[in-house]
Amino acid sequence: MKLLMVLMLVALPLHCYADSGCKLLEDVVEKTINSDISIPQYKELLQDFVDSDAAAEAMGKFKQCFLSQSHRTLKNFGLMMHTMYDSIWCNIKSN
């Protein structure tokens, strides 16, 4: 499970680097760390990105990892992600 979380977090910034902008990334992260969004709501909001039952199950477990965290941890995670968005690495576009 931890490996899945690491892989998802590594893949998300690559979406930004791929010259597609960061709005989608920011929206997904905000939905992920928002403790007011339940697992069924999360799956429904992101259903366009799920192509199998296994992926849906993994997405639910991923969201549960964040639901299990304290408000302070979620706030710090959001701050870390925004720091990444504002970094030069997220602003560099490939030639």
TrEMBL record:
Keywords, sorted A to Z: Secreted, Signal
Task: Write down the InterPro entries for this protein, in alphabetical order.
Answer: Secretoglobin, Secretoglobin_sf
Q: Report the main location listed first in the record.
A: secreted
Which Gene Ontology BP annotations are present? androgen receptor signaling pathway
Q: Which domain of life is it from?
A: Eukaryota
Compartment annotation: Secreted
A GO cellular component annotation in the UniProt record: extracellular space
Q: What Pfam family is a match for this entry?
A: Uteroglobin
Tell me which positions the record assigns to the signal sequence: 1-18
Q: Which CDD domains match?
A: Secretoglobin (cd00633)
Name the record gives this protein: Secretoglobin family 2A member 1
The species is Cebus imitator
